Each structure stands twice: as C-alpha cells, then as structure tokens.
Q: What sequence folds into this?
C-alpha cells in the first residue's frame, strides 16, 4: 500500500479525477474557464517542489461516481502520476434514490485499487451546500452519512481523506457561488488549503489566494429558481447532465509552476 505523501517527499506529478467540484466550477477565471481547488493544490505542490510539476485534471461536471471510476480513474492511472486525488458521490446523493453504502464502498474500493498500483492517493469530499439549496436538510443527512462511511472505511488504509464536508467554515453562504451549489473562489481556496495541509505541504500566505469574482449579488428567490433550480431539475428528469459532451479541461500531465494562479 502506498504511503501518504509528506513534506520530505515533494510531488512531481499530480492527477485529479471527479465531478464539478474537482473541475473547479464556481471559481472561474476572467475568461470563464474553471480553476478551483485542484488547480490551487497543483500550484502549491509546484511551490513545494521548487519548480514545476506535471498536472492533469480529468474531472467533468455532473458526473456520477460510476463513470468517474470506470472512465476517469483508468485514464488517470495510465498517466503515471505520483499523486492522485479522487472525488465523487456528490451527484449521486442528489438523485431521488441512492445507496450510501454502495457509493462509499465503491469510492473506497477505487481508492484502494489506485493505491495498490503505487500511486499516493487522497480522497477529497466536497463542501456542504445544503443550508442554501432546496431540500437541503434531506441532502445533508445523505452527505453526513457518506462522509462518515468513507472515513470509517479508509481508516487503516494509509489513504488520506480530506473531509471538506464537515469543515465548519464551508457551509457559510459567503463561500458559495451564485448558484449556491458550487464553492466560489474563497471556498475553493479553503478546500485547497485543507488538501495541502493533509499532505503536509506548506501552504502559501493567504494574500496569494485568488480573488473572488463572485460579488455576492444574489438573485431573488423566483429568479434563482428560474435560472438555477428548474434547469437542474429538468436535467434530472430527462436524464441529461451539465457535463454531457464535455471533455476534461486538462487530460494530460502538463507543467504547472508556483506562478500559475
């Protein structure tokens, strides 16, 4: 089983797989492309390495856990990264029916399988948005159960678990984008700092964190439902996804340096 990465062993290559959280939705650059916590982690790893590292991000918004594991995981492992982060299950718990046990089992089994190939593996949970979305209380129970189940199953495996779900800062609305479902730049910066801390990588000064382009001018309730909630419900009812026909934003290991914020 691979051991967790430490400060004494700088990471030279990093691949991330997952859904919109890992793709970086809610933290968009000026040109509209998503940045997000995984990009910030790559920059932090490059800073710790004292140069550049290879970084790939195969995450695609809207993905359920099954395609993340069936398609993204093999592609990521084929790249041969030194470090792999896995995130998934967030979209599964938003479905009408879901087995938390099955999702936790499959996520942990995938992480263990990856670690057994020799890549240091970290499982990263998303933040908790449920205080600000419709049916939030129901989804929160599912999210609580999933985070606890994953933590329990990973105990003793040597695989790092970064539990953003139970970070008591992140439920605050100030850390969420205008759609209330994706972290904004401030929220992604916290998630990135949690990952780097878990990996024992020195964290950059807060003054170097990305600016938050979300001015927190939030739509009224009717407008919010019209622009965000109803389209989301419509996709679920018709079996569509916001990630349909999308490709990963960074499918191969490309150089990233500490200056690439």
A:
């Amino acid at each position: 089983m691979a051991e967790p990465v430490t400060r004494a062993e700088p990471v030279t290559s990093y691949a991330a797989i997952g859904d919109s959280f890992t793709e970086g939705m809610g933290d968009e650059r000026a040109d509209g492309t998503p940045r997000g916590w995984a990009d910030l982690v790559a920059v932090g790893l490059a800073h710790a390495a004292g140069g550049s590292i290879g970084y790939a991000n195969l995450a695609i918004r809207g993905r359920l856990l099954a395609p993340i594991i069936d398609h993204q995981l093999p592609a990521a492992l084929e790249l041969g990264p030194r470090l792999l982060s896995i995130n998934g299950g967030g979209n599964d718990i938003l479905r009408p029916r879901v087995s938390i046990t099955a999702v936790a089992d499959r996520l942990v089994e995938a992480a263990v399988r990856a670690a057994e190939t020799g890549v240091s593996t970290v499982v990263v949970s998303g933040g908790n948005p449920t205080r600000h979305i419709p049916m939030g209380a129901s989804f929160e129970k599912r999210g609580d159960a999933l985070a606890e189940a994953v933590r329990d199953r990973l105990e003793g495996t040597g695989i790092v678990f970064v539990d953003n779900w139970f970070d008591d800062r992140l439920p605050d609305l100030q850390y969420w984008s205008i759609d209330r479902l994706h972290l904004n730049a401030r929220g992604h910066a916290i998630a990135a700092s949690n990952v780097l801390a878990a990996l024992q990588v020195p964290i950059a000064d807060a003054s170097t964190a990305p600016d938050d382009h979300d001015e927190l001018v939030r739509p009224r309730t009717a407008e919010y439902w019209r622009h965000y909630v109803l389209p989301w419900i419509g996709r679920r009812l018709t079996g569509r996804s916001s990630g349909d026909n999308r490709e990963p934003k960074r499918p191969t290991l490309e150089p990233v340096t500490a200056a690439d914020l």
Observations:
- The domain at 13-257 is CATH 3.40.50.1110 (Rossmann fold).
- The radius of gyration is 17 Å.
